[in-house]
Design goal:
The complex is a heterodimer of chains A (464) and B (201).
Chain A (H helix, E strand, L loop, with lengths): L4 H9 E4 L5 E4 L2 E4 L5 H10 L9 E4 L14 H17 L2 E3 L9 H7 L8 E4 L13 E4 L2 H10 L1 E4 L3 E8 L8 H12 L7 E6 L1 H4 L3 H10 L7 E3 L4 H7 L25 E6 L6 E3 L7 E3 L13 H14 L14 E4 L7 H11 L9 E4 L4 H9 L2 H8 L2 E2 L21 E4 L14 E4 L2 H10 L5 H9 L1
Parallel strand pairs in A: 3-4, 3-6, 4-5, 6-7, 9-10, 9-12, 10-11, 15-16, 15-18, 16-17, 18-19
Antiparallel strand pairs in A: 1-2, 2-8, 13-14
Helix pairs in contact in A: 2-5, 6-8, 11-13, 11-14
Chain B lengths: L3 E4 L1 E4 L6 H4 L19 H4 L22 E4 L11 H8 L4 E3 L5 H10 L8 H11 L7 E4 L4 E4 L2 E4 L4 H9 L3 H6 L2 H9 L12
Parallel strand pairs in B: 2-3, 3-4
Antiparallel strand pairs in B: 1-5, 5-6, 6-7
Helix pairs in contact in B: 3-4, 4-6
């Protein structure tokens, strides 16, 4: 019988069935950060439990640390960072802290270190753990109580999800990136449209993506509600896992981690790659986006009174008028970073736009490389110089920073940001902050123009 | 855990309420589960000067006493932070009625005894209307029988068996799963050598 990749991964990790329909699944590898793990460790202590298999866990500092300088910017963030370090020491768990050359955003660090490979099951107290689906691995986010459960048992209680297939066939137009593919998918399926599903991405436009693009797609799949995202393992996947610190010691198989021919999914969406334009979000939910040459929607574009109310609330929060041209929207800040788009490929794409250009006056432009390793790689390639010459603030340390504003990079009330991140929620980048999601190259274009701008105009310039 | 949740319903119909809104990040710099009541929905409940926003439902009588929220689609989306559930519980919320919830939030709620009955959009909209009536009276979420009752109305709701059992029994999953240690050891013994991850310290 034909099986989906998702079912193969679940079946391979099932320890046993439980009463009431759940099962216990084995977690091959578990990642922790400083803000969703403290109460899990204290739970272990209160119950007098030890860590089942300490060597299968990694802790990385990324959410609350400053990126302007290495030292914590305040006592509260220092408390969280020190707490994680002492918990890891106590339980003999690997800890990549501030100043460690392996430190960075957890979902950037793990692939760099060769800690993800096809066929694995990876859990982490962070919703963007779906990223690992790009490798044909089952990655998903968990809460703190589940972090405690993984620490104590190396397993999780698990309920099998339904599966959704999203086919993206065709060739992307110039200027259209993996970020635009996933923003298009979120727009089509809806925020929450994939609640209860594992989503598999397939089709020629997905296969054509490099591993960085595939990670961007799987990363943001959580914004449509997917608890897991998957892409079949292929030769690109196997090439990516080679030559890294853990490559020789980890092997869960290869390209057999794919759905069988004829495997049946509960739901299917087909998207034509040629019809995807560079997208920007205009509202406060990741499914509220329009092409960069489009207009902010009006009440006439909404189908129900509820949708109309949501539109009006979003426009009010964002300080926008219905029907206005997207490219008229001026920005205060530009941010390139986050687990969605801060890898070396993202920095290179933005640098192509920025080369020889200047950030518009009055725009505060920040770039936070996804990891220390990525930053050094970019500096070796001279990419830092392109950013700095253009007027970007090239951060010397790595972390989530302004994506979720848990450190000292907090946008002000009303500040409008062109952002390569994943969430445009109310208050996400600071109370009252207005986020427009887009690809890193589009952020660079917006930074140069001072307003949301079409990256394709820059590419045409380059071709002349 | 009682087999039912009783209390006043408050209407909170906006869609896609994410965990950043439920628990803003400035309240997350903590290593305990406690002290999160003030942070819960803080930017909706309070203005910049920390004054109560009189228009927000939980600041208006009688809903200051509400223990059940009737919510819009896709409540709890976004970040995995369990602080969102801890905060709602500390604010006195014991049930959230909606058409569907983000997966991580749903699982976090179950771990903490917060009941999340799922109803159809039609029933949810009816409950929103009832919840807006200050004289609607008490709502009862009967977990054992999967039924919501308010006034003369009774509506069945969806809740998977494992979540229902977890809410009724109030169990500790970590300690329960450790009773299956032999099964876990058995699974591990079947793994090939390179399937045992060893992270370099």
């Amino acid at each position: 019988m034909s099986k989906t990749l998702y079912d193969k991964l679940v079946d391979a990790h099932k320890v046993c069935d439980l009463p009431d329909g759940d099962m216990l699944v084995y977690v091959d590898f578990h990642i922790m950060n400083e803000y969703t793990s403290p109460q899990a460790f204290s739970g272990l202590d209160q119950k007098g439990l030890k860590v089942w298999r300490p060597e299968a866990h990694l802790s990385v500092v990324d959410h609350v640390n400053a990126t302007r300088q290495r030292d914590p910017h305040d006592d509260a963030s220092k408390l969280l960072i020190d707490n994680l370090e002492s918990n890891c020491k106590k339980h003999n768990i690997a800890f990549y802290g501030l100043g460690d050359p392996r430190q960075g955003i957890e979902h950037v660090v793990v692939p760099e270190q060769g800690l993800v490979a096809p066929g694995m099951l990876i859990a982490c107290g962070d919703s963007h753990t779906t990223t690992y689906g790009a490798y044909g691995a089952l990655g998903f986010g968990i809460g703190t109580s589940e972090v405690e459960h993984v620490l104590a048992t190396q397993t999780l209680r698990y309920k099998r999800l339904k599966t959704m297939l999203v086919n993206v066939e065709g060739a992307l137009a110039p200027g259209v990136t993996a970020k635009d593919i996933i923003m298009k998918v979120v727009q089509v399926v809806g925020a929450g449209g994939a609640n209860g599903y594992a989503v598999e991405f397939a089709g020629s436009a997905i296969r054509d993506q490099d591993m960085s693009g595939r990670m961007t797609i799987c990363n943001m799949a959580v914004e449509l509600g997917a608890r897991a995202a998957l892409i079949a393992a292929d030769e690109k996947t196997l090439a990516m896992v080679k030559g890294r610190a853990h490559s020789e010691s980890i092997d869960f198989g290869g390209t057999e981690w794919r759905s069988d021919q004829g495997a049946v999914h509960d739901q299917t969406f087909d998207i034509v790659a040629e019809e995807i334009a560079p997208l920007v979000s205009w509202g406060t939910s990741p499914d509220q986006s329009v092409p960069i040459d489009g207009l902010v929607p009006t009440a006439d574009d909404t189908a129900t009174p509820k949708a109309k109310a949501a539109l009006e609330r979003a426009l009010d929060y964002m300080g926008l008028s219905a029907g206005q041209s997207v490219q008229e929207i001026t920005i205060d800040s530009a941010f390139i970073g986050s687990c969605t788009n801060s890898r070396i490929e993202d920095l290179r794409a933005a640098a192509v736009v920025l080369k020889g250009k200047k950030v518009a006056s009055g725009v505060n432009a920040i770039v936070v490389p996804g990891s220390t390793y990525t930053r050094l790689q970019a500096e070796n390639e001279g990419i830092d110089k392109i950013f700095i010459d253009a007027g970007f603030d090239w951060r010397p340390e790595s972390g989530c920073s302004m994506c979720l504003a848990m450190n000292d990079d907090i946008a002000m009330d009303g500040e409008r940001i062109a952002s390569s991140t994943n969430r445009n929620f109310e208050g996400r980048q600071g109370r009252g902050a207005r986020t427009h999601l887009m690809s890193p190259a589009m952020v660079a274009a917006a930074a140069v123009k001072g307003h949301l701008a079409d990256v394709r105009e820059f590419q045409n310039e380059g071709a002349e | 855990m009682p087999d039912q949740v009783k209390g006043l319903m408050a209407a909170f119909p906006q869609p896609n309420v994410d965990t950043d809104v439920i628990m803003p990040k400035r309240f997350l710099i903590t290593i305990t589960r406690e002290g999160l009541a003030d942070g819960t929905l803080a930017d909706l409940r309070f203005d910049e000067d920390n004054n109560k926003r009189p228009e927000f439902v939980l600041n208006r009588s009688p809903w200051t006493e509400a223990s059940i929220l009737v919510v819009g689609d896709n409540f709890g989306c976004g970040s995995s932070r369990e602080h969102a559930v801890w905060g709602l519980m500390q604010l006195g919320i014991r049930g959230v009625i909606g058409t569907g919830f983000a997966g991580i939030f749903y699982d976090n709620a179950r771990k903490n005894g917060l009941a999340l009955p799922i109803v159809s959009p039609k029933v949810r909209d009816e409950l929103i209307q009832i919840a807006r009536d200050p004289d609607a009276g008490e709502c009862k979420i009967d977990i054992a029988n999967r039924q919501i009752s308010v006034g003369s109305q009774h509506h069945p709701f969806d809740m998977d068996d494992a979540t229902r059992a977890a809410l009724l029994e109030g169990r500790d999953d970590t300690l329960d799963s450790l009773k299956l240690a032999d099964s876990i050891l058995g699974y591990e013994s079947g793994l090939r050598e390179k399937m045992h991850v060893n992270v370099i310290q």
